[in-house]
Sequence to fold (314 residues):
Amino acid sequence: MLTNVATLVYDGVAPFELGVLCEAFGMDRRDDGVPLLDFSVCGPVVGRVPTSMGFSINVERGLDRLEEADLIGVPAMPRGGHVPDEVVTALRRAHERGARILSVCSGAFTLGSAGLLDGRECTTHWRYTSELAERFPLARVVPEVLYVDAGDIVTSAGTAAGLDATLHIWRQEYGAAVASAVARRMVVPPQREGGQAQFIARAVPDCRAETLGPVLQWITEHLGDDLGVETLARQAHMSPRTFARRFRDETGTTPHSWVTSQRVQAAEELLERSDASVDWIAGEVGFGNAATLRHHFTRVRGVSPQQYRRQFAC
Fold:
């Protein structure tokens, strides 16, 4: 169980991506039912550390702090700069003892320099994926996804995708309800799957065009209903073909995939918060029967609904 998080910084750290890790893991949200983690920022230099934005931060812990962390966060760092040798050594040692490591944006280059991407799928900001693949040819770079969970190494794209990856870790460790509570405090969507495209092509709408936001909200309130493309297109006052095209442009996925993801998430919360049967939950969230729920839940989460309930039931 995740209890201890250290975030690594050195000269040139990007403060925004550092803030993502601090916000996700360093805030006290016990009033919302979120466990308090032991969180610290550390680096090879104790004291003043220049950031990429022309100001400095004060770091109070050295690299020895990594030795006790369950999770190590690596925010965006200078891609072309030299990674301090002591940082490389500390990251390798932490990984060897079993710590999980999460990079945000160009923090992946730090992991690459430590040899931690060799033989693993990984990603970074879409602007830098080609450079990452060229510099670290043993890494299996997956371009234009939000994040990649390779088990002990999690890599994410730009700032918002870093939030997605942190919520993914919260969900794995403590369940959907806790992850949703963290997301609500940060005012972000509780879940975007890692395989979703980083860059969403969005046409400039004319003055009569409407966002699909209201339709997406309506879907979450009617998961038990028939949510085929024809039904959703009527709700959006579009033809099915136009709706399907607009949906992919605005969400980066198909209506069926998005609805399935929302149904799995709703099933998670019911499994955590109630003792209702799997069959009843399946009907409530729109899967119809327990077999269909088990199929989609196991495919998305990697465990059966019963296994998930045993691990995360409140």
Observations:
- The radius of gyration is 21 Å.
- The CA atoms of residues 247 and 255 lie 7 Å apart.
- The first helix runs from residue 15 to 25.
- The first strand starts at residue 4 and ends at 8.
